[in-house]
Design a protein that fits this description.
Elements: E1 4-10, H1 14-25, E2 30-33, E3 45-46, H2 48-56, E4 74-75, E5 81-82, H3 86-94, E6 103-105, E7 108-113, E8 116-119, H4 124-129, H5 135-150, H6 169-176, H7 180-190, H8 198-201, H9 204-221, E9 226-229, H10 235-246, E10 250-252, E11 259-262, E12 268-273, E13 276-285, E14 294-307, E15 320-324, H11 326-329, E16 335-341, E17 352-359, H12 365-368, H13 370-376, E18 381-392, E19 401-403, H14 414-428
Parallel strand pairs: 1-2, 1-13, 2-10, 7-15, 13-19
Antiparallel strand pairs: 3-4, 5-9, 6-9, 7-8, 11-12, 12-13, 14-17, 14-18, 15-16, 16-17
Helix pairs in contact: 1-10, 1-14
Length: 444
C-alpha cells in the first residue's frame, strides 16, 4: 500500500465503482479501498443470513420457512435502470456487459391513483385506454402528449408559441387545460420528479427530455422502460470493480481508513490505514468517509419485504415499479415500491422482494409508508432501514476530494448516473464523452 497513486477511491458503492472503472480505463493508477468485506456498500445485495445479521443481530437466524439463504440476493436500495438511461449507456461504453452481465425486463410500470393501482399511460394510444382519466380529459392529455413528444427546440414549427428552454412546464400544462390527475402521472410516474417543485423551477425542456427518455426506454422492449440485473443490483459494483482491476486498479476490501491526509494548504495528499500510507493527489469516496465535508440533506426510509405472492392489481407481474405520487397520499414526497422475484434469482421459487422507499417527513417514518405496506400484505418478513442522506459541501476542485451524494429514495438510477458524470467531469476537467470506446485488453 505504501505507493503513490493517481486516485484513491474509498467505498465500493456503485458510484465509487463506476468512477474507479472509468478512471482506470483512462489510464489512471487507482487504489480502491473499502472498510467492508463485501462489494457494493449501501448498494450491495445480501443473502438472507446477511440480512438477518445486519438487521437482527449476529445470533438471529432466519426461519426455515423462508427457504435457503443462498437463494436470496436482496438489494439494500431499490433501483431499476432506465433501458435507454445514462447508466445503461455507461455500461455499454465501458464494455462491462461482456462480464456475463444479464438483465431482465421489468414487467410493468404502475401509478397509485385514488386508491387503485393503474398502469402508467405514456403514448396517446395508452392514454385513450387508461382508467386514470375521464373521456374529455383524455382528449386534452392526448393533445398535450402529442405536442410534448413532437417538440424540438431547434424547430420553431413545433413550438406553438412556447420557448421550452425558458417557459415552465406549468405554463404548458395550463395552456392545454389538463387536470391535476394528468400532471400528476406525467410529472411523477413518467418524468420521475419526486415532488411538484419542477412545475415552476426548471425549464419545460428538461421535463420534456425526461418524458422522451421514458418513452424511448419503453419503446425498446414494450412492457416497461426499466431493466434489472439478474442476481440483484450488487452485480453492478462488482463488474465495474472487475473493469478497474483489468486495467491495473488495486482493490482492498476489509481495509479500514484511519485518516485522510492533507498538506498545509488543505489539499489532499493521501490516505492512512493501519500504519501504512498511500499517496495520491485526488481522493474519491462516499459521504461516510468525509463527515466533516458533507451536509445532511434529509432521511430516507426503505422497507424491504419478503412476500409469497405478486402485488395485487399488477396482473400477477413478477417485477414492477409502483409510484405513489405525493398528492395521492397527502405527502410532500412520492413513495416508491419496486418488486423483483424468483425470476431474477433474487429469491427462492415463489418468493417476491418488495422494497418501499420515500423521503422521511415525520418522526414516525414507517407510518408514512403504511398505505403501501397495506397493499403488499400479507408480508412474511420485513426489514426497516432508515438512513440519513448527505451531499458534499463543495465540488472538490480546491482540495482534491470528490464526494458522492447519498442514494435518494427514487427507484431508478438516473440521479445516481448524473452524480457519476458530474464527479468524472470535475476530476478530469473535461466534458463527459458519451461516445468514447475503451480499448479491449486481454484479461490476465
Amino acid at each position: 500500500m505504501n505507493e503513490e497513486y493517481d486516485v484513491i477511491v474509498l467505498g465500493t458503492g456503485l458510484t465509487e465503482c463506476v468512477i474507479s472503472g472509468l478512471l482506470s480505463v483512462s489510464g489512471k493508477k487507482v487504489l480502491h479501498m473499502d472498510r467492508n468485506n463485501y462489494y457494493g456498500g449501501e448498494s450491495a445485495s445480501l443473502n438472507l443470513e446477511q440480512m438477518y445479521e445486519k438487521f437482527r443481530g449476529k445470533d438471529v437466524k432466519p426461519p426455515t420457512s423462508l427457504g435457503r439463504s443462498r437463494d436470496y440476493n436482496i438489494d439494500l436500495i431499490p433501483k431499476f435502470l432506465m433501458a435507454n438511461g445514462k447508466l445503461v449507456k455507461i455500461l455499454r461504453m465501458t464494455g462491462v456487459t461482456r462480464y456475463n452481465m444479464e438483465f431482465a425486463l421489468v414487467e410493468g410500470s404502475f401509478v397509485y391513483h385514488k386508491g387503485a393501482i393503474e398502469k402508467v399511460p405514456v403514448t396517446p394510444t395508452e392514454v385513450a385506454k387508461s382508467n386514470l382519466l375521464g373521456f374529455f380529459e383524455k382528449l386534452k392529455a392526448k393533445k398535450l402528449l402529442s405536442y410534448l413528444y413532437d417538440y424540438e427546440q431547434t424547430n420553431p414549427k413545433t413550438h406553438q408559441g412556447f420557448d421550452c428552454s425558458k417557459d415552465s412546464i406549468d405554463k404548458v400544462f395550463k395552456y392545454f387545460g389538463v387536470s391535476d390527475d394528468t400532471t400528476d402521472f406525467l410529472g411523477h410516474a413518467v418524468a420521475l420528479y419526486t415532488d411538484d417543485s419542477y412545475m415552476t423551477t426548471v425549464p419545460a425542456i428538461q421535463v420534456i427530455e425526461r418524458m422522451k427518455l421514458y418513452e424511448e426506454s419503453l419503446n425498446m422492449y414494450g412492457k416497461s422502460p426499466y431493466v434489472y440485473p439478474m442476481y440483484g443490483l450488487g452485480e453492478l459494483p462488482q463488474v465495474f470493480a472487475r473493469l478497474c482491476a483489468v486495467y491495473g486498479g488495486t482493490y482492498m476490501l476489509d481495509k479500514p481508513v484511519d485518516k485522510v491526509l492533507y498538506d498545509e494548504s488543505g489539499r489532499v495528499i493521501g490516505v492512512e490505514s493501519e500504519g501504512q500510507v498511500a499517496k495520491a493527489k485526488m481522493v474519491v469516496g462516499d459521504p461516510s468517509y468525509f463527515q466533516d465535508k458533507v451536509r445532511k440533506t434529509g432521511k430516507v426510509i426503505r422497507v424491504i419485504c419478503i412476500l409469497s405472492h405478486p402485488v395485487k392489481s399488477t396482473g400477477d407481474a413478477k417485477s414492477v415499479q409502483i409510484i405513489f405520487p405525493q398528492k395521492s397520499t397527502g405527502r410532500k414526497h412520492d413513495i416508491y415500491c419496486c418488486v423483483t422475484s424468483f425470476t431474477h434469482h433474487v429469491a427462492p421459487n415463489g418468493k417476491y422482494i418488495a422494497i418501499v422507499s420515500t423521503t422521511v417527513e415525520t418522526e414516525n417514518p414507517e407510518a408514512e409508508v403504511k398505505v403501501v405496506l397495506d397493499i403488499l400484505n400479507p408480508i412474511e418478513e420485513k426489514f426497516v432501514y432508515i438512513l440519513d442522506t448527505f451531499a458534499p459541501l463543495d465540488d472538490g476542485k480546491n482540495d482534491g476530494v470528490f464526494i458522492s451524494k447519498s442514494y435518494d429514495a427514487t427507484t431508478h438510477y438516473e440521479s445516481c448516473a448524473e452524480d457519476i458524470v458530474s464527479i468524472h467531469e470535475r476530476i478530469s476537467g473535461e466534458k463527459f464523452d458519451w461516445n468514447k470506446k475503451p480499448p479491449q485488453p486481454e484479461e490476465q
